[in-house]
Amino acid sequence: MTHTTLVTSIDESTGKTAITLALAQLAREGGESVSYMKPKGTRLQSNVGKTMDDDPMLARELLGLDAEMHEMEPIVYSPTFVEQAIRGREDPEELRDTVAERFDSIAADADHVFVEGGGSLTTGGIVDLTDDQIADIIDARVVLVATYERPSDADDIIAAADRLGDRLDGVVFNLVADANFDALETDVVPFLEGRGITVYGVLPRDRDLAGVTVGELAEELAADVVTDVPTDGYVERFSVGAMGADEALRHFRRTKDAAVITGGDRADIHTAALEAPGVRCLILTGGHRPSGSVVGKAADKGVPILLVQTDTLTTVDRAEKVVRSGRTRDAETVATMRSLLADHADVDGLIGH
Known about the structure:
Blueprint: E1 3-9, H1 16-29, E2 34-37, E3 40-41, H2 54-63, H3 69-72, E4 75-76, H4 79-86, H5 92-107, E5 112-116, H6 131-138, E6 141-146, H7 153-164, E7 168-176, H8 178-194, E8 199-204, H9 207-210, E9 212-213, H10 214-220, E10 224-225, E11 234-235, E12 237-240, H11 245-253, E13 258-263, H12 267-274, E14 279-285, H13 292-301, E15 305-307, H14 312-325, H15 331-344, H16 347-351
Parallel strand pairs: 1-5, 1-6, 2-5, 3-4, 6-7, 7-8, 12-13, 13-14, 14-15
Antiparallel strand pairs: 9-11, 10-15
Helix pairs in contact: 1-2, 1-15, 11-12, 12-13
């Protein structure tokens, strides 16, 4: 009989891909034949979904799978698909049948299928294909990936547990900052376990998984890089330049591995940011090109300038999602996640042994 584990998360960008593939590798090393599926492809390079999600491609490579992309990822959950679904041009019943058929095909020769959820737990609701609904279709046990910053985050976990019901096998916390580790392990984990929710592990935030390079950030934001300097520096946080220049300089000097996001017309802020040693790049919003002197100074300091068309608030929101997810997904990322799971989680429990 085939075992099926679906890995979902409360929010987007929580490390689902790395966790799903790391667990699949560990199960395979334990003697199981494994396969992979991501019913809803959500990591797309184009609105119409012509470019496939990278995650199944990585799964094929790391797990040595023969399945075709359209089998592993039957629904391309692109903005165009969503628009068509809202207009009633997608049939939820047909989509459910497609998911079930593809799953049966993928599961035919596998002891254990690892299924990656799409986006967040509720992604797919417009076509009745949220992750809990998919778990029902394919009869999967569910591992919930969560992050933790404050005690009230437990509300979301309780709500997700209620939604998943008996399908929920347990929770893994990922990307947990050092400052939040003790409160989570001392207070929140026992609280959740007292409510009947198993916590399989608390994984610390790892530099290799948490940060993204300036180049990756530029790609994800569709930014125009206006400087000719290396873009391999790491960004872990953002600083918004919305204050006076003197205050900005004091603020920027206290930060490290930061990208400063500010309007392209704020030359005073650009100059202040370029004086601070912890600033890895400038992200200038609103499509305003900086002055030649700012570009020249940035080139001298080796600090890339990224130009985006969106406003500052939208840019901050998008950039934070990118950094939260540590967008690089490759063999090295999965290897790092395997080490984290081995050190900080009950791997046998997660695999269902």
